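example protein:
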Amino acid sequence: MLDAYNRHIDYIRISVTDRCNFKCVYCMPPGGAKYVQQEDLLSFDDIIKICRALVKVGITKVKITGGEPFARKGVIPLIKAIKEMDGIQSVTATTNGYYLEQIVDDLVEAKIDGLNISLDTCNAQHFNQITTVDAYDRVMRGINKAIEASIPIKLNVVPIRELNMNQIIPIVAFAIKKSIILRFIELMPIGHGTMFTPVTSGEIQAMIQENFGTLQPIDKKLGNGPAKYYALEGFSGAIGFISAISNKFCFSCNRIRLTSSGFLKTCLHYNQGIHLKPYLDKGISEDELMTMIAHEIDQKPKDHGFHDKLTSNVEKKSMFQIGG
């Protein structure tokens, strides 16, 4: 499926819940979050039906997200069902790692292709301050168990000037020790994230090179997303940078998103798209869904406007509501 700008759209991020058992200070509003009610969530049957339609328009890669996706019961059978669909090449998931220790074996059985695990610090006390949850040791046990089970892992870090700049070097050291892929994601000005100061990828790269040596570009892709990866001498993993703000990559965007309430979203920055749930409730066919999805992909914006002072069609929701 090509959009109007000749981009090959083959990847969707599907949020199964906006709920999360962590309350990370840069993501959740301090006054509490308003969540989607259970009856307004897409059912797993609806998600499977949408995925079948997505395959027909050329989607081959799926990432299950949240909130914390594993906070919703039944997600692993959903992963298995999507994984078994003809035309699907990979199914991965995001997680904060809280449930990981208990579900690693089930994820292996479901043949998941990889996990993106959020980890913004390697210090237990600092972890509690950022997430407001005393779960550092539990998350670390889950990460180690997933590594032992040979599930491909990428650690995701959001560098924020006010929160975790002193943790960049310890996190890199941890990734090197574990021989896993580490990614630094620039904070995007969405929702509660606008209250904090992002750090550019260039600044993080300079810190890493000062402490660990020269970063050597890796030419091949290491996943579905836009990260640019680098190697370090003596490190069998890789370090990636997702630089949506400082190095706009919209020209190569290959993704669309589906929120937990069924809103098909073609660009993270804008609120344009279409609510699929009302049509699903009325029994829309897979072919009709396919046509509707193809039309929305064709309307996908050329690029985001995070640097522009836009006042209309701008997304007001937070990342946990959209699908992280």
